[in-house]
Amino acid sequence: MSRWLYKLLLCALLGHATLACSADDPRFSTVAIASALSAFEQTAKIGHPRLFRGGADHSGIVEAASAERAGGVKALSDYLHRTSVRVVDMSFISAAEPLNSPTNLKNWFKQERTLEGLAESAVSWYFTRDSWFLDELRARMAIFGPLVIDNQCHGELMQARAYAWYFALAYDFAYPALNAAERELARNVVKTCALSALPSALKNVKANPRDGIAFHALGKFIGALTIVLGELPEARGWLEPALQTYLATLSPWGGDDGGYANGSSYVLWDTGESLLIWDLIERALSLPIYQKAWVAQLPRFIAYTLPPGTPAGVFGDGAEVNRKEEWARFGKAIMSRYSTPLARWYEKQLFGEDIARLHVLLSPRQPSGSAPWPEGEANSAYFPSVGWAALHDSLADRARVSVYFKSSPYGSLNHSHADQNGFLLYAHGKVLAMDSGYYDYYNSPHWRNWYKQTKAHNAITFDAGKGQGLGADGLGSAQLAGKITRFVTTADYDLVTGDAAAAYDGQVSLAKRTLVFVRPATLVVIDQLRSATPRQWEWNLHTTAPLQTNAAGYKLNLEGAEMCAEVSAPDGLALATQAGYTPAPQWAAATTPHYWNRFFYKTPKPSAYFVAVLRMDCTLPRAQVSFPAGKPVVNLGNRQISLVGTEISVR
Predict the structure, then answer these.
(1) pLDDT of 139-178, one tens digit each?
(2) Which H or E run includes 567?
(3) Residue 341's CB: how many other CB atoms inside 10 A?
(4) Domains and CATH numbers, the chain
(5) How far apart are CA 211 and CA 478, in angstroms?
(6) CA pair distance 447, 586, nearest whole angstrom
(7) In this structure, what are the phi and psi dihedrals at residue 68, rounded to the nearest 5 degrees?
(8) Contact 462, 503 (CB under 8 A)
(9) pTM for the whole thing?
């Protein structure tokens, strides 16, 4: 066994799922990258499309386009005809403008979608050989090409990376039909944007790999330069250092367990948009990127944290929305690159995707027929690199009960929120304990003053909504972090403990939360809290409907799902409920109903306990909660859950 394989195995056994465990993988070393580029240049030139290794097909993709994906090819054709730049008013397309307002940002996304049509036209021509698509391609090149060249691709990284990538992808698929001047224009767009933006992208990623815009710009440039390698003289010199940095830092948002700290929406957006670049790295350059530890484990993270049938995503910006189409489109595209039983099962459970998108049409062809749930696969999982735990009663069941818990070393950085030791609760396709708020846009008044804050989550606050820190600029901090200190999974129950004291930026000395999920549908949440200053401690629960008060506590009734809740403390608790949001998101019509339920101590205390028992089936036995000597004890059936020393014991 090689030293590298031994170290990787040791990392896995010890749970050290960090970038350090895979950083010295020799398959992606500086020497290996240089050798791969030299081999590309020294062997017979790979033709186009490079995405297909220069051949006519790759893994049946072209055959699928005239068989099971014929409907998608037709739908893309119809879309391009409807949105043809020769028919639709294109006056919104202009030189690069700063993306410093919601209006400019929305206009850019519309412009980028039109730019994507450049590549879609080329792919449609490749599949059909219909000359209409060549005419459309040329019309789009005539709009965007001079704009980019004349403006020297000046603008923001998001814009430069899109111009380079979509022109290169169009060049790759339409290459034999383009004349010399058209090929030269495409290469010049790549060159101009690389000169303008690649140095800053590379510099920014080296300084901070978690600069998401720069990191994904680096990926797009790598894809574009791989397509023109050997045909643009400067490409090799630019591509080699870009590959070295990109592969060394992939992924900046998680470790070898496949975790992605920025949340379920960004894991699909970011990786889904990276797949074709990864394909080029693997196919054209023979660098086995899908075997890189984080990439290889990515499907498992997605399967456990965004399982089929989930009513919403989990944690971070954009997670609150049911993104069924995107989940199916990106989920199928991602899983199609893997041959594991879990990936095959997951892919077969998804439906409702936009079949006209390139994410679907350019994915590897899948075997027909069903794929069974992998026998022996666990129902719960813990991802140490990002501090997430996903607890399910039955992961294979679309009507499952799911509990998600987060106490992350990434803290509230970037698209993460100040929700350490926060949890989410979904059952029977409904959201019972929600991540509240709406992602209207990054750093909006709603994002900054509600959505990102601890009070917007099912986590602990004090003194009328005060919570975890967000750093000096209010945009989040990795230093104000949490950590999962314990994870136990058994056939009957799961237990996870998080320590979020550091996230409160010195205001709290103890913030420990333990979740015990007793199958099939009971969740016990125990909080241990302490501060040098007496606090009016608060236990937050966010719901999509009002809680109904009854003799046993509180009940949430949703169509097809229910939750009975009891929240206790050694001292008496009061409940305050507030509907809606303050401040409201800019696009409030898109939000779901929201009720902020705040259980709080009536008198400030330097230390506190909370015990919450949530039953997602109100016919299940109630728990008996007591506080002998002031410490929590929960009797649930034949089980006792109690505080022994500093840890929660289940007996």
Answers:
(1) 999 999 999 999 999 999 999 999 999 999 999 999 999 9
(2) strand 561-568
(3) 15
(4) 83-249 (1.50.10.100), 381-650 (2.70.98.70)
(5) 13
(6) 10
(7) -70, -20
(8) no
(9) 0.94
